[in-house]
Amino acid sequence: MTLGLVAQLIRLQVTTADSLTKRGYDRSLRIQTEDALRGMILDREGEPLAISTPVSTLIIDPLRMWATLNGDFDRLREACQTDKAYSVDCAWANSGNEEEARLRYQYETLRPLATLLDEDLAKFYDELAARADQQFMYLRRQIPPSIANEALDLKIPGLRRENGYKRFYPSGEIMGQIIGYTDVEDKGQEGLEKLYENWLAGQAGKVKVLQDRAGRALRVVEEVRPASAGTQLQLSID
């Protein structure tokens, strides 16, 4: 081996080790938007007329999901057929042909998520299959964070969550025409919600998160720009 090759190997292994590691690390990092908490609207006595509560949105990358499931199927079916002591339930692998086995495996993988979201499994499967070449699909918007946590615990490839807020109006329709309402993006559409949009909305932030290969956020690495909550609006009416 020439001195030049030795020097090149040393440079790659030592001199550039940190930069190569950083490049690999960066490929797993993503910037996500962090919604701002919308300011409350209060009556003269300080009772809330409009308040926001945390919710989650489930998003999936169908292209990644199907690619991963197909790869897992090939690996697991071989293990089921060759290793008698394999601990995974291999009932799906005993189907008569490969395509039937693949379909059963995919159904059984998606069944817990469909059940959690109260979806018909066949319809749920077909909707995902119809978007197999796409990288973005809303599964469910504005659900309780606890449901989103359960969904992520299922470890479906390509499934991730975005956190946000949903507006609630304790007084119901009584003050509806005055207060107005917000849309699914939590932006004012009518009444005071629209009139004071800039006052109530705040400013969204950005965070850098570390993701696994399936696109699930593992942890927040850096707060790029902190979210700034909206300003409270107190009225002179009861």
Can you characterise this structure?
The protein folds into 2 domains: 30-61 and 136-238, Penicillin-binding protein 2a (Domain 2) (Alpha-Beta Complex); 63-135, no CATH class. Helix 4 (98-116) packs across helix 5 (121-130). It is elongated and about 75 Å long. It has 9 helices and 8 strands. A hairpin with a 5-residue loop joins strand 6 and strand 7. Strands 2, 3, 4, 5 and 8 form a 5-stranded mixed beta sheet that branches. A 3-stranded antiparallel beta sheet has the order 1-6-7, with no helix packed on it. The protein starts with a helix and ends with a strand. It is α+β, with helices and mostly antiparallel strands and 238 residues long.
